[in-house]
Amino acid sequence: MRMPLPDAALMARKAEIVRALKRLVSGEGVIGDPAGLVPFQSDGLSAYRQTPLAVVLPETTTQVSAVLAWCQANGVKVVPRGAGTSLSGGALPLQDGIVLGMAKFNRILEVDYANRCAVVQPGVTNLAITAAVEADGFYYAPDPSSQIACTIGGNVAENSGGVHCLKYGLTTNNLLGCEIVLMSGEVVRLGGKGFDAAGYDLLGVVTGSEGLLGVVTEVTVRLLAKPSAARALLLGFGSVETAGATVGDIIAAGVIPAGLEMMDQPAIVAAEAFVHAGYPTDCAALLIVELDGPEAECVELCAQVCDLAQARGASCVRTSGSEAERLAFWAGRKAAFPAVGRISPDYYCMDGTIPRRQLPHVLTRISEMAADYGLGVANVFHAGDGNLHPLILYDADKPGQLEAAEAFGADILKLCVAVGGVLTGEHGVGVEKRDLMGEMFSETDLACQQRVKCAFDPDLLLNPGKVFPRLHRCAELGRVHVRRGAVAFPDLPRF
Amino acid sequence: MLDVAARTETPRTAAEVAELVAEAGAAGRTLEVVGGGTKRAIGGGAAADGVLSLAGLAKVIDYAPEELVLTAQPGVKLSALEKLVAAQGQMLAFEPPHLTKLLGAKGQATLGGVLGANLSGPRRLRAGAARDHFLGLQAVTGRGELIRAGGRVVKNVTGYDLPKLVAGSWGTLAVLTEVTVKVLPAPRTELTLLYFGLDEARAGEAMTRALNAPVDVSAAAHLPEKTAARPPLKVEMAVTALRLEGFEASVAARAEQLVLALKGCGRVEQLDAPHSREFWAQVREVEAFHKDPRPLWRISVPPAVGWRAGDALAGEALYDWGGGLVWLLTEAEPAAVQAAARALGGHATLYRGNGPAFAPLEGPLAALTARVKAAFDPKGVLNPGRMGAG
Hints:
heterodimer, A: alpha+beta, seven-stranded antiparallel β-sheet, five-stranded antiparallel β-sheet, 18 strands, B: alpha+beta, 24% strand
């Protein structure tokens, strides 16, 4: 993966840049010394590291605005960062740019039960929102597995999902408003506490824009009344096909579970060894189905889903008998990534979405490819919405294995697109899938998206090198008609 | 209004749409984009040189009930689509309003039109808006370029979410040529609890209590006394309505819970499933205000303060979305209506009546909006003036 060549002249100005930023953000808000920069070199996609020029940790919207305006005036690139848990390299620093860390924006500003929303700063963690309101019977629905650490600002940037998004939606479906600062330093409010806003749905396009359009400085999220009951089912199957068919049966019966997860045998074995969740390690596929709502509904739906599973010959059908048991059922799934980390020195997590009916074909192809590449793979799958997370097992210390894992991952994502799916269901494009965007979009499609970027950030200073496989200068996008396959700007580096 | 002098083109393919838009751009002509033409009166109609009708792009392309997605051309009639998915026990969960009679239109609402206007019905407060169910698109931008964005699966974050941007852009950014929407299982049954005689403030409070209880209320509306007295309801007291949907046992259990939560709100009556459906169709289509000469506003505000909009402006109101959506018949000055909506943290759109429909934007947001419009349609070919400056 290549990043844009750093601008040597800009890097030579580091001392001056740090001095200027210190005037805008006083105290310990600017880090320039090499040791202090180390923790910021990487995000959750840890195979990639770069040292930024400096890290700025502002505390107010006014400071964010001043920093961005100064950077725009001085041609300095900016990479926004929440908790740095991105799995696609969204917060990977640039050598000739600064990192704008939003961790100090860590306050919940308002909880408004009458309008069922909370106004929070972007550095508040996902889980902290629920923690602040659960005693009053509310919660914030999207629950990415990293929710203990990841920030709501990062969730907005990446449009994060989680195991409950089949029923409750992604981040974008649970936001009412936000305040963003443009690269120019201008502060713009999008939405509010109402259900829609005047003008274009800019909140909708900023959500999931991976930090390329603006820096989020405040977020208004929807709160939901916590369901009075929730139960989980563990359903074991002799084959991935029957597990997949059961998922289809559940949906066809008109049931949308709160969570509907599948794990294949390598993932089941790894998770069981790690957290002892009580998973049946002899089955080929395991479904975890969560049903929530009033007690009467839970009971009825649990019985219905169990019947469907048994009709497909499920080898193991268990219903959680207590809240502790429900959480234990989930513990294995939520710890699937670290569990796989125990059986392999390194793993690489993919994130394609496929039409669910393609699951048997895709899993068969993945195991064939694994054999070709000589690498192991464990699959966890948000089965309800078709979002597949193959975990490719490799050892970075063995020459060539990282490259093989990346090539294998790219092949999986190409397969996802080929069967009618997409490159990423919830982790984002970042740097990781940037060069695969052409699999899904034509040059014309990408040029259209980049013009949206230009409307927000005409100098392309905000998180450049992410999402788009090629940088197009905005002025050129304005006048050149880009045709599929044509290398429109041979003078610009393809990185 | 239909300008009979304007030439109407009815392309049959996306490529023809692209050609027409590109030609118009090259010739400096503007186009009004029309689906069923039912909402063209909103905003007084675009004064365009020609009309681009999507009536010729009206096929369902792929419907996979088990995948919860449907792909269709934008000109497909909403009513036909609703029948198609209902036959599979599914629905468009955002409960799109047709508004045909409200707007006195002759045609039929289309899928593209509903998405373009981001119109959502009573279930919006629980299931999300049209934009939340709009997964992917193929469209022709104002530059005459055919693009794709989003996908054909329910979960996708690849690239910018352009379907959200296009939803509610009233055809000013791009002409839809194909859309993919999410479909969901329809509830097996429903019932509605009705409370009577509450004034606006108490009704607002009752709706908040209902929506904050863990009973999954799927619609909450209030018809003040004068509104409830109008046809088709014609009752002599204010009516506050709360809908529960789902499996039979669940709905019954939740109804009991809800009645307990609303103790002290007075007499309660229950509408069974057929009557509940009929009632919410009337709310969705704002039937109470079908025949009235006064201007009709759609006001979107934080739900808990919805009733204050009716307080601030003389007129007759119908409150949906737990108070978050206010339909208001009023002869107040447009500027006064928009100022009142803004003061409450929302915005107002004129749906019926003369004058600009959309509230003007201000400051950096207005400038950003203009740049976004220019990114898609730099020559202003599509629906000129439809969203004010945008």
